[in-house]
C-alpha cells in the first residue's frame, strides 16, 4: 500500500479525499495512452471508478492493468502537479454504488440531468485501482 508520510504525500492524500475528477490513463491496443476524466472515490487504500461495461478503458485494463491517474494542475502549470501510478482491476461481479460515492456526486448528477437509476444501469462496471507510487510538485 502507498504511504503518504511526507508533506507532499499528505497533499496528495488530501486531493484523493476531496477532488471530484481524476484523469485515468489506460493504454490502447496499439500502445496509445488514453486519458479520460472520471468520477472516483478513495477508500484509504484504493480508488473506485464506475464505467460502462463496453468502454475502451475496461478493454484496455483487461489487456494491460497498469494505469496512471492525475489531477488538474494549477492554471500556471508550475505547481500542484500530482501523478499516481497503479494497477487496475475490472470487477467481474457487479457491486452496488457506495453511499460515499452517491453523496460525493449527488450535485454533479443533478447538474447533468442524470439519475442514480440510469447510473446503476449504464455505469454498472466497477474498476478498482491499487496505487503504488506518486510523484509531482
Structure notes:
The protein is of the alpha+beta class and 137 residues long. The protein has a single domain, classed as Electron Transport, Fmn-binding Protein, Chain A (Pnp Oxidase, Chain A, Roll). Helices cover 29% and strands 35% of the residues. The protein has four helices and seven strands; from the N terminus they run αββββαββααβ. The longest helix has 13 residues. The relative contact order is 0.23.
Quick gist of this model?
The protein has 137 residues and is α+β, with helices and mostly antiparallel strands.
Topology:
Layout: H1 7-18, E1 21-27, E2 33-39, E3 41-42, E4 46-51, H2 56-63, E5 66-70, E6 82-90, H3 99-111, H4 116-122, E7 125-136
Antiparallel strand pairs: 1-2, 1-5, 3-4, 4-7, 5-6, 6-7
Amino acid at each position: 500500500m502507498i504511504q503518504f508520510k511526507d508533506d507532499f504525500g499528505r497533499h496528495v492524500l488530501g486531493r484523493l479525499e476531496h477532488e471530484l475528477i481524476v484523469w485515468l490513463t489506460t493504454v490502447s491496443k496499439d500502445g496509445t495512452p488514453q486519458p479520460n476524466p472520471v468520477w472516483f472515490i478513495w477508500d484509504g487504500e484504493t480508488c473506485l471508478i464506475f464505467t460502462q461495461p463496453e468502454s475502451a478503458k475496461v478493454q484496455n485494463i483487461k489487456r494491460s492493468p497498469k494505469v496512471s491517474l492525475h489531477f488538474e494542475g494549477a492554471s500556471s502549470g508550475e505547481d500542484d502537479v500530482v501523478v499516481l501510478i497503479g494497477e487496475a482491476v475490472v470487477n467481474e461481479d457487479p457491486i452496488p454504488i457506495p453511499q460515499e460515492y452517491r453523496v460525493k456526486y449527488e450535485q454533479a448528477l443533478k447538474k447533468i440531468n442524470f439519475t442514480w437509476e440510469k447510473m446503476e444501469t449504464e455505469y454498472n462496471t466497477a474498476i478498482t485501482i491499487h496505487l503504488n507510487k506518486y510523484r509531482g510538485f
